[in-house]
Amino acid sequence: MVSPRAQQAVLCSVDTATVVITSLIAFAARGLLPFGDPIASANIFTATVAIGIVWVLGMAAFGVYAIRHVRAGATEYKRVITASATVAGAVGIICYLLDVDYPRGIFILWFALGTLGMVVSRFTRRQVMHRLHLRGHLQTPVLVAGADHHVDAIAGVLRRENWLGYRVAGAITREHLTETATGLPVLGNLDKLVDVIAEHRIDTVIFAEGSFNSPDEFRRLAWKLEDHDTQIIVVPTLTDVGSHRLDVRPLAGLPLVDVDRPQAIEAGRWIKRAFDIVGAGVLLVLASPILLATAIAIKLEDGGPVLFKQPRVGLKGEEFFCLKFRSMCTDAEAKLAELQAQNEGAGVLFKMTNDPRITKVGKFIRRFSIDELPQLWNAFRGDMSLVGPRPALPREVAQYDSDTMRRLDVRPGLTGLWQVSGRSNLSWEDTVRLDLYYVDNWSMTQDLMILAKTAKAVVGSDGAY
Questions:
Q1: Which of 261, 298, 309, 411 has its CA 20 to 30 A from that of 439?
Q2: Are 393 and 310 in contact, with CB atoms under 8 Å apart?
């Protein structure tokens, strides 16, 4: 595995190259803007070099090169944008105060293109790393410490989400075991932690529940690792709480964590509804040729109705008619009872890989989720949202327990967190967990990321049937 310092050096080098390349582009394209001022200063080269150095240093000051944020999440992108905007503002103010005549066209183009370039380079790097991790390359060896059942839970998540690049090398437990319940080898106890790390070249230690009994014990464990280049991760007792709802606030030596309230109410505010109206309207216009072609193909195949209207349960349990392009034969509902014994779905969902009710056109439009495009009209009307839990059938809702009913506290969506986390391949329990996480931790940033991942998943037709 590449060392953290080497990774930081690579990130900094890429950013420096981006700053240099975009500066050249900005100089070449400055005339495209209506206020492309001529270059009047003889010191323009010196000023440009100075601004570039300040920009990269500003990135470092804002923690952009912290390795802990490069695997997943939006923190890395947010810091790049915040750092670039702050440096641009500071440079603009300094130029004004010192009466430095720096061309506005170059300045605006440079920071706009440079910021975009840094975000794109990080996104590209992350996608490449995820693909390498999935193939077993550049894995980070991880040691999980704690009670054996907690260790197995953490190890199970890391194995399932192997795109993160963590390879669980073994466990450290208080119990005298040779392996955990799932067969994970126990490499020693907490007293031998440093020796195990050195022997197996561990880069990261994850402390789960049961790894220490008191804050003093954890502090001593951290002392033992002080001289080792090992990342320490502590799994809190809080689960399924988004990082944007957490705020660490030290008080009298205690690292108190402020937890913001669940965000279901915020998900119903005007900003999400306005985004749905604008987004669904634009997508309906852009998708109109596909909508027309699909409608014609369905009609020509068997002469049946183009649209399939099905009652679904929406916000606060209100029913509405969910629209889809018909992808099954006209008597599909009547044949459902005959196929229940072959149900491959989990929980209350019915799923079948080779459902005989699906038509030829239906197989194609399902593969690329074209059958769900009419739901853009549901989102425009307000029955649904672009992002949210999938709309459930009334018979499915009738089987919900009290926790699962929480899914109905926000509008159902065309896509959601579980669709971009495996789609049909997830268990019912994981589906509910991800939907509840979305409801409790809603944010506009998360919605945008889900939409971006949905486009990728649809193109690859991963898990769809």
A1: 309
A2: yes
Segment 316-327 shows an average pLDDT of 92
Beta pairing partners, 312: 320
Asked if residue 453 has pLDDT above 80, the reply is yes
CA gap 10, 16 in Å, rounded: 10
Rg (CA), the chain: 27
Residue 184: pLDDT over 90: no
Residue 87, token pair as written in the block: 């440096």
What distance in Å separates the CA atoms of residue 234 and residue 382, rounded to the nearest whole number?
A: 42
Q: For the ranges 150-164, 233-247, 268-282, which has the lowest average pLDDT?
A: 233-247
Q: Which residues 6+ apart lie within 8 Å of 157 measured at CB?
A: none
3-state helix, strand, coil in the chain (%, to 5): 55, 15, 30
Look at residue 246 and give its three-state secondary structure: strand
Number of continuous H segments (helices) and E segments (strands) in the chain: 15, 11
In the DSSP assignment, the letter for residue 120 is H
Both structure tokens of 246: 């957490």
pLDDT interval class at 463 (50, 70, 90): very low
DSSP β-ladder status, 246-251 and 231-234: unpaired
**Centroid of chain to Cα 296:** 36
- By mean pLDDT, which of 98-102, 353-357, 435-439 is the weakest? 353-357
How far apart, in whole angstroms, are the C-alpha atoms of residue 119 and residue 125?
10
Q: Find out whether 113 and 26 touch, Cβ atoms under 8 Å.
A: yes
Contacts of 313 (CB under 8 A, 6+ apart): 319, 391, 392, 393, 394, 396, 397, 408, 412
Among residues 126, 182, 192, 137, the alpha carbon closest in space to that of 155 is found at: 182
Buried b (16+ CB within 10 A) or exposed e, 407-430: bbbbbbbbbbbbbbbbbbebeeeb
Report the DSSP beta bridge partners of residue 167: 141
* pLDDT range class, residue 196, cuts 50, 70, 90: confident
Q: Is the pLDDT of residue 123 over 80?
A: yes
Sign of CA dihedral 339, 345, 347, 350: negative
pTM over 0.85: no
Q: How far apart, in whole angstroms, are the C-alpha atoms of residue 313 and residue 319?
A: 4
Structure tokens, 274? 């306005």
Mode of pairing for the β-strands spanning 319-325 and 307-313: antiparallel
Give the three-class secondary structure for 243: helix
Q: What are phi and psi of 136, to 5 degrees?
A: 90, 10
Question: Which pair of tokens denotes residue 462?
Answer: 């991963």
